[in-house]
Specification:
The complex is a heterodimer of chains A (193) and B (203). Chain A has 193 residues and is mainly alpha-helical. Chain A is built from nine helices and no strands. The longest helix of chain A is centred in the middle third of the chain and has 30 residues. Chain B is mainly alpha-helical and 203 residues long. Chain B has a domain of 91 residues. Helix content of chain B is 53%, strand content 0%. Chain B contains seven helices and no strands. In chain B, helix 3 crosses helix 5 and helix 5 packs antiparallel against helix 7. The chains are: A mainly alpha (193), B mainly alpha (203). At the A-B interface, helix 2, helix 3, helix 6, helix 7 and helix 9 of A face helix 1, helix 2 and helix 3 of B.
Amino acid sequence: MSERFHFVRTQMEYQPGSRTDFDRLYQETYQRVFRTLATILGDASAAEDCTQEAYLKAYRAWPGWKGDAPPEAWIHRIAINTALSYIRKRKLREVGELIRRLGRPVEADPVDQVLGSTVIAEIRRLPPKQAAAIILRHLHGYTNREIAAALGEPESTVATRLMVAKRTLRSRLADFRQEKSDTPVELGVSSLE
Amino acid sequence: MNVGGDGFDLDRLLEQELQRATGQLQGPSAGVTQSAYHAALASGGTSLSFSSISAFITSKLAIAATAAVLVGGGAAVTATAATGSTNPTVWGAAVVQVVQGCKTTVGTGPTALNHTASGPRDNIGQCVSLFAKTHGATERALHASNARTNHPTGKPTDLPHGKPSDLPSGKPNGIPGGPPNNVPHGQPSNLPAGAPNKHPGKP
């Protein structure tokens, strides 16, 4: 069984406020939360910062956790909100950074190289909550209900986000496929056709 | 399944690409003891700010790098470079960091798992001792270097060499020092310039 569905069953195994349980939650969920944020942010350092901040916030709130959602979805909710906040701040900094870096060669981030495929790039071009919904669904296997818990939104909103996101991705990737029809391997779809 | 009219299976593509791309990603702080909340608890609260989390992660990486170099037998110069200073205060902070680093390295490393006769605590002591020795070597090297610079030859002496003088030292180089002041030097003379200098000689 893939790790993707593990979190669902662990919901009843955690005691709110228990330091030991929180440590275990950290160990079991850290890599998945980190990957989610790395995909959304495209920056390993920022993803690590946001992940750590999210767990710190979560630890403060841990005694009050009610267990109405799987703990991993709860952590994801805090982490995604932290990442969204980071993105807003980053946008404010980008103009200054752009000016500062003018004329200098851009150093490639290793994560950008890892996540350098067209598909991942297109996911990151989506609005952050749409991207998060796509990642939670297709990387971690969350259901709409679990995504709703992670994003703090109604299931109907999640369904709409997923639908719009997929429509956008299908359109953009189809455009790309037409432009690069001679190199289908770049999309990773050669085996699907 | 989300297959379009053109046979394009988007769901499968997304799943494959996300798994492929992020499967290689490993966050650096998977251990509980490496987490920011754990560090905040250890420091007496959970009030770490975002910037201090960044600093915590950065320092953690620096400590790991420093400890790795030192345990590997790195030179004193490397230790100085690790802190960027020989200031005792900075070194004090570095020692604290290295102790933490040694605890982490030794406490989680293969040595601790082996439960050798000396035990993890002694190994931490050795780790810190190595750092201290390295620091001592750095200080000695620095003092030796300063001594050579300040006293290139001979023994040091408290006696001044020669008498003090108001005269500028060195040879004139023909370049006047300082800006021109347009003030003529000396008093005007009524004597014609270039007048023959006659010395009455003996007949």
